[in-house]
Every structure is written in C-alpha cells, then in structure tokens.
Amino acid sequence: MQPKVFLVALLFLPLSGCFSPNETASPSLLLGTTTSMRDSGLLDVLVDEFEAMHQTDVEYVAVGTGAALQLGRSGDVDALIVHAPVQETRFVEEGYATERRPFAYNAFVLLAPIVFSGSVLDAFETIASEGHCFVSRGDDSGTHAKEQAIWIHLNETKGLQLVEDSNGIHPSGDWYYSIGQGMGAAINMADEKSCVTLSDRGTALQFENQIDLQRYEFDDTIVENQYSYLIVSQTNLTIAHDFEAYLLNEGRRTIENYTINGNPAFFVYD
Asked: Which residue intervals of the chain bear CATH 3.40.190.10?
C-alpha cells in the first residue's frame, strides 16, 4: 500500500503554494483529514478502494481538526473528514460547506498507567484531584476539543477550577502537559512518562501492542466520537460528491469490516 500523506508537520502554514485544486492535470480529490483517521489505518483502505473504483487519485493532508477546517476556509482542499461537531456546525453556518454528513463513529478512550472505575467524568475528576500527569494534544483537534468539553463539564458540575490560555481550557498544575502535537506523539509521551492521555479508539488500538498503558472505555455519551464529511463550498467538485456517495454506500461495508488486532475500530450509522 502506497502512503497517501503529503503534509503532516507544518500544521498552520498555508498550503496554496503546495497544491491547488486548479493545478491538477486530471480529476483528483484533495482531502483535509484528521490524524486519528490516518493513524487508525482506515483512511488508506478507503482511499485505495475509492481510487480503484473511480480511476482517480486522492491526496490528503492529515492534521488536527482545527487545522483541517482552516484548510477548508482557505480553499486549499476540496473536502474534509473531521470529528469536532461544534466546530463543524460553525463551519457550515459560516458558509464554508453546505452540510456535514456523519458517516462513522467510535469512541474516545483513556490510556493510563493507573486503574479507573466509574464514568469518564469520574476518571477525569480523579486525574485532576490527584494531580496525575496528563498529556493533552493541545492542538485544537477533535480530541483536544473533547478533552476540553469534559473539563468544562466538571467545572460546571463539580466546580473544578480551570484556566484558559494558549493551550485551551484546562486545569492548572505542572502535572498537565500540553504538547501541540498529534495523537501518536501524545500516546508515546504518555507512555514514556507514565501519564494519562485521551485518545480516539482507532489510534489507541493501533498502539496497543507498543505501549504499557491500559485502555479504558466508557459508556458515557460524552465520549462518542463522530466523524463527518464536509464538501468545501469554494471548490465543490464532482469528485468530492463522488467520495461522499462512496462513504455513505459502498464504503460502509469497508468501515464495518475494518478491524485492528481483531477489534472493530469504527461503526456506521443505521
């Protein structure tokens, strides 16, 4: 399988000098997507299948959801796969896309060297009260947005004291590390320092045999991790609509059947 990733590290540099929808010689799709969708391995499977079906090329840049949405705002990509519903809704309301189409989901999980019981909110409260080291992506990604939503919920229901700074909204303390990097980097750092980190299930499964941290899953609705597809209004190419149709039809079975170490990584909506 040939890698499809072209840009990863320079998250906030404009890409118009690197590629442009108008510069492609043949029909191709320029996709902005999340590091979690890439790191799970599913994206390459979907892209390879779609390319074979449509005799076309898909090129993607994998960044945090916030950076991916910025690529959409600047018109540097044709479509997006992201997982931060609040930010996505704002993106549509601002006119950068006409709609968002949820097509798959899994859950956020905790990777930790300590034992948790109860809900994910109980776990986060324990982390804060005990000052157990926590690694945050701190990169405006969907995972980072979910982490902040959990801290905010604890502030509203338990009075947990929070601060807001360049790293987002979070508790204060030297136990909290905000690294401004992708999911893989956060997991590796958490493993090296025996810290806790919040991860999407897909990436956590990929790292399962490489780290000593335990994976904790929760039934709370707050940890649902929804992936949506958005076509960028500024480009709105036919191929972008073709990829949407694929995700909602033929791609469903591929998503349902995709496993990591024998575990289902994603689920589709009825």
From this structure: 21-106+224-264, 107-223
